[in-house]
Automatic annotation (TrEMBL), chains A, B, C, D, E, F:
Gene3D superfamilies with a match to the protein in the record: 2-enoyl-CoA Hydratase, Chain A, domain 1, Lyase 2-enoyl-coa Hydratase, Chain A, domain 2
One Pfam family hit: ECH_1
Protein name: Uncharacterized protein
One GO MF term attached to the UniProt entry: delta(3,5)-delta(2,4)-dienoyl-CoA isomerase activity
Family stated for the protein in its record: Belongs to the enoyl-CoA hydratase/isomerase family.
Organism the protein comes from: Fusarium gaditjirri
Major subcellular site: other
Amino acid sequence: MSSTTALPAYTSYKNIIVSSPNPFVAHVEINRPKKLNAFTQELWLEFGRVFKQLSGDEDVRAVVVSGAGDRAFTAGLDVQSASSDGILIGSQADIAKKAKLVRNHIEEFQDSIGAMEKCEKPVICVLHGVSIGLAIDIACCADIRICASNTRFAVKEVDIGMAADIGTLARLPKLVGSTSWVKDVCLTARDFSAQEALSVGFVSQVHEDKQAAVQAAVALATTLADKSPVAVQGTKELLNHGRDHTVAESLRYTQVWNAAAVQGKDFSLALMSGLKKTKPRFEKL
Amino acid sequence: MSSTTALPAYTSYKNIIVSSPNPFVAHVEINRPKKLNAFTQELWLEFGRVFKQLSGDEDVRAVVVSGAGDRAFTAGLDVQSASSDGILIGSQADIAKKAKLVRNHIEEFQDSIGAMEKCEKPVICVLHGVSIGLAIDIACCADIRICASNTRFAVKEVDIGMAADIGTLARLPKLVGSTSWVKDVCLTARDFSAQEALSVGFVSQVHEDKQAAVQAAVALATTLADKSPVAVQGTKELLNHGRDHTVAESLRYTQVWNAAAVQGKDFSLALMSGLKKTKPRFEKL
Amino acid sequence: MSSTTALPAYTSYKNIIVSSPNPFVAHVEINRPKKLNAFTQELWLEFGRVFKQLSGDEDVRAVVVSGAGDRAFTAGLDVQSASSDGILIGSQADIAKKAKLVRNHIEEFQDSIGAMEKCEKPVICVLHGVSIGLAIDIACCADIRICASNTRFAVKEVDIGMAADIGTLARLPKLVGSTSWVKDVCLTARDFSAQEALSVGFVSQVHEDKQAAVQAAVALATTLADKSPVAVQGTKELLNHGRDHTVAESLRYTQVWNAAAVQGKDFSLALMSGLKKTKPRFEKL
Amino acid sequence: MSSTTALPAYTSYKNIIVSSPNPFVAHVEINRPKKLNAFTQELWLEFGRVFKQLSGDEDVRAVVVSGAGDRAFTAGLDVQSASSDGILIGSQADIAKKAKLVRNHIEEFQDSIGAMEKCEKPVICVLHGVSIGLAIDIACCADIRICASNTRFAVKEVDIGMAADIGTLARLPKLVGSTSWVKDVCLTARDFSAQEALSVGFVSQVHEDKQAAVQAAVALATTLADKSPVAVQGTKELLNHGRDHTVAESLRYTQVWNAAAVQGKDFSLALMSGLKKTKPRFEKL
Amino acid sequence: MSSTTALPAYTSYKNIIVSSPNPFVAHVEINRPKKLNAFTQELWLEFGRVFKQLSGDEDVRAVVVSGAGDRAFTAGLDVQSASSDGILIGSQADIAKKAKLVRNHIEEFQDSIGAMEKCEKPVICVLHGVSIGLAIDIACCADIRICASNTRFAVKEVDIGMAADIGTLARLPKLVGSTSWVKDVCLTARDFSAQEALSVGFVSQVHEDKQAAVQAAVALATTLADKSPVAVQGTKELLNHGRDHTVAESLRYTQVWNAAAVQGKDFSLALMSGLKKTKPRFEKL
Amino acid sequence: MSSTTALPAYTSYKNIIVSSPNPFVAHVEINRPKKLNAFTQELWLEFGRVFKQLSGDEDVRAVVVSGAGDRAFTAGLDVQSASSDGILIGSQADIAKKAKLVRNHIEEFQDSIGAMEKCEKPVICVLHGVSIGLAIDIACCADIRICASNTRFAVKEVDIGMAADIGTLARLPKLVGSTSWVKDVCLTARDFSAQEALSVGFVSQVHEDKQAAVQAAVALATTLADKSPVAVQGTKELLNHGRDHTVAESLRYTQVWNAAAVQGKDFSLALMSGLKKTKPRFEKL
């Protein structure tokens, strides 16, 4: 990944690197490798801002996310940092007052991570090495999950005395096919392997190591970036909408969505290119 | 399948053949084999009408659907035909006016294909050969999916510059166990094989070729046709209801549904036959 | 399991045995082995009461459920007993009147079985031997499903002329990853094996025989009982809430739930123990 | 109303007259005055077809509905006709079989009446004289309700031994502001007057007699027909969508709807006309 | 009301009197007049049991609820009693532990009051004198609300430092027509009068004094008790279902509900009585 | 209002003034009186930020909103400003591209106005003079609406060729008691008076002029600011939650919410003050 082009518009982030390995493809790296990419509040606020920016950036059509360094995607929350901010631990506030602080704190945290799901471009998450706690919350917000064979997964929150609250419990059961398995890993906080993640459908590819996984992700992102952005972004939107609605509601929403989308040039361009066997070039979206 | 009995009540359809390989079993064939069974508007309107008729036909208790000929279940939308009707492509209407036309057009199309899901009898879909685009929308409306080993599946719409809008994006994620896989195939429009379809749970049987798959489907349909229609049709209804409701709502709906259903003769007849080890014969429903 | 300690608070049940193989672990056995643990109304009412009691019992942190004896988890409804109560069969009441009786009867039955799902402690269900009909309804209410290799599963209700109405049709499709498979087994009422149950994700472990399966379940329950009850019970609650809500609603509910939960001592205790590498002892909940 | 222009496209209906009192305004009259406009199955099927046709007719922008003759909007279901078709009364079918017939019968009836709600053009319902039973189901599907001072309203179904099933119980509580009043009139089946209907908000205007009420409705419809059809039809759609969705969902749906709608010419035309104080003429929709 | 017949089946309640002023009519009186009918836990548990019993009692077709004595319907929670049980006030439990106790406590309380809403027979609530706090929660569970002119209403909970949690905030906005008014009275905890309650639609009748209000309620209940129980109870069920569902879902549920209900004798009996102008006598339900 | 104390923390806004007429009460004024307080994008973005700030400001417990000057609350969107930004009018972008821009534009606008609804403190909106278009969208986000007798209301959007998209169509039908009236004013865009707004429940008080209305609003806000913030803010949250959920869901959410809230000091403080007849002083929240 050494020859990637750094994206000038994304140089203000302290804990995140955004490069562009291929045209229209962005690679987001969580960049605190010495701390196993553990998340401070500063980091998760940046994480939210990056994905909001990517969502509106017409030069980006597909995104790859990974951790920086070889050891971890992320080890989750930076517990020392969390201890010192006083919100979750140690304050002497009135219980009702503290409940309000905690609610607002969790909401801000959820919103920051959830910005990846709301990003209108498809996001491919590459898990590798230590990928526990918040790593799962983040991965659940991606569209496609790929991992290295050495990935150590765990829904770790029960072991720090709390129910996971940044999204894993809301999203994971809707991503994989066995609730018995979901409850097992969420209640026991046990590790699970890349192979197990593949067999339950949490990830859809396992690669030899991080480098191979990132390469595969970039290749996949490049494929997506070559396609009609109207079609790709509409497909993401409609799939996400469908998760939280009945089929009848999704069908209606689809009618209204496509009523504008198919009037764009991408549709006739792609259709004609298909008939003429030429490769279409799509306008920015 | 040469000795099937043609069903007299279904002879008016131009593009669809309905035969009856066994008592109470109907076999619906999409019949434009020279065009890889591609769908014109005429065909999809017939498709909707056939399933509405089957739903109300008390001589039918289970339905098998396949494509006619060896090459394709269906190659999807007949693009040439679609181009010429002017709704999706080429009209000069005002944008808001065209948006209305497109919405109504998609709704009619969705309703026609969705008639298979609404059909009160169980439907077994046999996929084989080319099964792309609309083929997946259709298969998602069936109850049980079986395929031939040569099936070439693809959610193809992204490659014609649009998000799939006849139901795949609404239904597919609720049918299989890996959202990562769903997004992969929907966003990339790549082909996937019978084996892959089986491993993610999209189909539940793979057979050597189309003939074997149709035979297995007819055998399965015949099994269903031997059982209590009250029980079978109630089971289909309650499973479909459950997909779009909370567990609490489904349980309540089930109470109300069975309050009438178990008062029918099928229940006592089946119960007694079970105790007496005899084979029950159920009345038409 | 011979050396388990019987739980004194649970000795009033006629058809159910509750023992405690390990501290904070309860083992519930359905105890009509001569009748293949078939359910009479008396039994299901007791089943509901047991789980309501366990839910409020601060000396219990995890529950294992199995059938007594080697032959069956349960063969389902005790048909002879059901025939004699006149609600479902044989009464001469007015149709609307009987509809009301049937609705209320099903509701009471659903509520009794559903008490296992509502129980605030995690429940591990061990299926073994004959596990048909109501066995599936019950298993669907558990958090984690484990089985013996000899388990004979079937969603049997269609064969007695009715749609399953105690919860299988509402819950099963949300527990496993292939709707095509769900509809197959629910419509055909065919047997399926431990291996098949594992491959579709219905169970997450298969063991050689009942004894090994129960041992594994007790070990797993013991692991859960060692962890923070606030974390474990919160995780169960949030996962169950998530099944029936959109992601956005689950995230909000999670904020409100954890606003109180993380103010408990378990959170800081577990956090500190993690940092200090000591083993925490949690207060009763 | 004698000088209205009959609409040629609507002459095939036997029990319904459609005229056009003003450009782009349609007046639908239920036309069985000798039978107090009571509904046979033939009539309600025509009713459904008329509104489907009006929905797609670009020469119609607003609709007024009334009964023909002076005595009744409608006295509801034609009981004699209903008795003779054997679906609701008198058949000897198996209970489960008859339950299916009844369900399908009610669904067809609901769909026919509901076509008025689904009609994309605003519908003003003029109630007058006898307006009981089905009259309320119909009125609930309109957008705006106006009545004559002599109107005799009643939710009459309880007095024929059944819960109203064509929509009153689903819609009425969402149309008016007092559930205590709704339950009073629905449970007692008592008459209520025009003045009472006005005071609870069921109707929004009361006029001296039928003629004045129809004139007011036509004037209101004419006002609507002068406005942008894109704006008027969008407003109807979004208000109806809002009734059945959360505010958050409605807001999102509104974004997607208007994304196409405001690109139409009506928006810039109306905006410019407003600034220039001219009267815009909108294209057909 | 002195000549009412006490109902023998309801004599075991300590704080509640159930009499029968007319055949098939039950009158429930909250009976702690010296304490302004304030609620202890014992009382609310009895309240829940009474309505569960009434729901299943085929000799009861309509219910009237009032307070005993002239001074109050109820002054709400018995604060002294509540203080002494230690659940809400004064316990030293861990915050997470106490949160669980509070949740379970509120749930039990909600379920007891909500039993009135779940009661399958229509309930008419007569408010009079002091009717504050819990009085509003209770009234919101009734079907029809009537009051005496001296009633003093208030949603009082804000003045004891808490948000009302037994149902007022969930139900009141769905019962009346002005959210601005609802928020005013809920946020300020101010008193409002019988006249104000009438004008916003919270009650549908105001009578001179308690005696007149009870008489009117009994007369109304008697009217309901004369009608088909299948029709009356079905109407209550469908109206309550409609409150919490979309119109489309209610229509479907209605189809399934009436599929059994109209097969009962009440329907043909009422229909024939209507044609023959005779008074029908309905069987018990 | 001349003696109000300006709030130092809110001096950075260009188009909005925030003062504090009483302790814990904030008065927000939309401040473009020469332009009838019409909204530019700059203004609505400020509007969203103000309410986000107020929501987190523990020195504010209740908020009053009005327009500056005597002529208008607001005349709605500043059409000239909107024309010049090119998003809604005049751009030459591809239809699909422009659809995305419009969606994102509406979303930003909705979010800014909706910040008032999300503000955790109660908001009292004072309408006066010209109050059309966006004025209604804003008012619908307030908790309590009060107006001056000279207010000129109109849901004006249809007259500029579009369906209102900032929230009126989603919220208004849920605030008032007559859908017939809602559709009348939304479809015709006609003016309605203070008296009409009062009679349908849109506002709950009408005062002689703006000054009197603002005084009444400040008095009401002061009353709310004297009460327990835990109780008041919890009541707002639970009422808003209830609007978009079933009763069963609201009851559950209430349990979880109050599990923390009643452990705060406000509850015991208010309870004790009530018993001792003293006036409680609550801590900041």
